[in-house]
Amino acid sequence: MSGPRRAAPGGRARVLLGLLLALLMLLPFVVNPYLLSVLTLILYLAYVGQAWNVMMGFAGQLSLGHSLYVGLGAYVSAALFVHYGVPPALGFLAAILVALVFGAAIGFLAFRFGVSGVYFALLTIAFAEFTRIGFDHFDWVGGSGGFFLKVAQRDYNDLVNLRGSPEMFYYLLLAMTAGCFLLCHRLMQSRIGFYWLAIREDQEAAQAVGIDVFRYKMLAVMLSAALASLAGVFTAFFNNNLFPFQIFGIEKSIEIILGPIIGGLGTLFGPILGAFVLTVLAEGLRGTMEALGVVLPGVKQVFYGICLLFVIMFLPHGIWPSLRRRLGLDSDGGR
Questions:
Q1: Domains, the chain, with CATH or none
Q2: Which H helix or E strand runs over 326?
Q3: In terms of DSSP H, where are the helices of 160-264?
Q4: What's the predicted TM-score (pTM) here?
Q5: Which of 27, 189, 269, 305 has the most CB atoms at less than 10 Å from its CB?
Q6: pLDDT, tens digit, for every residue of 219-272?
Q7: 81 within 8 A of 87, measured Cβ to Cβ
């Protein structure tokens, strides 16, 4: 699969990233609760978009069932907390482990037996659907009736148990997003990143020059699964309720992948830009419809489809590569 040239942040880009980070750190002091919730949603989609981008954008392995790993992370951490009193500060380790096992199982079945392309994508959907059905009948975590966490009212922010104000969750998610960005940047500049690029562009050629394709594809799947499971931990303790049809549904997987595709697949800043554009436009559409008193079920999904169609037709590599050229960043630290 052909993609845009990947560039590392140079001097000018680092300045812009620093200004953006400073702005995001200051925004909670000046915005109202509604805008804070919108910003939190943007950061959440940016984070899970980056996690998916590792697997598809970097290594070229299309997953359409990434809600599987988010849901596993959510349920594992929430169940440990509710039934055994294990705080999420420790429970996230179990969440990562379970996601790694599932990711390794999917990767092994697919890559060992030559399942690739659209068939690999269908395999990821199948695992997500099987898991959703299983949790629908898993009474230990509430089944289809939902799993609920007790909401503790506290006068302070408790990071160990993830109990606190919306601002605490916002800054936690900001730290996760920034950390994932730095990890992705490091990976892109490493030997692993070059191997993934070779596999994405031409797997047979990569294998011919001695790259262990199976090993590095497995690494991409497992790392992406682990990162996505952390988003699930956040989701569980931020929403305090979990329903299988919501968290494992294919709609959630589609939301995860839209940001990177629209922003710029395989780029560092694409998933973040895509999450911002989609969320702002969707919230603007929702507000406009509420003001007009119009109720159209499914309009959000139709809107996402229109955005995707527009990008495919006019910006096939996403918004960020085109914007990067206009900002003059292509020659600033390009690979």
A1: 11-326 (1.10.3470)
A2: helix 319-326
A3: 166-188, 191-201, 203-208, 213-239, 244-247, 250-263
A4: 0.92
A5: 269
A6: 999 999 999 999 999 999 999 999 999 999 998 999 999 999 999 999 999 999
A7: yes
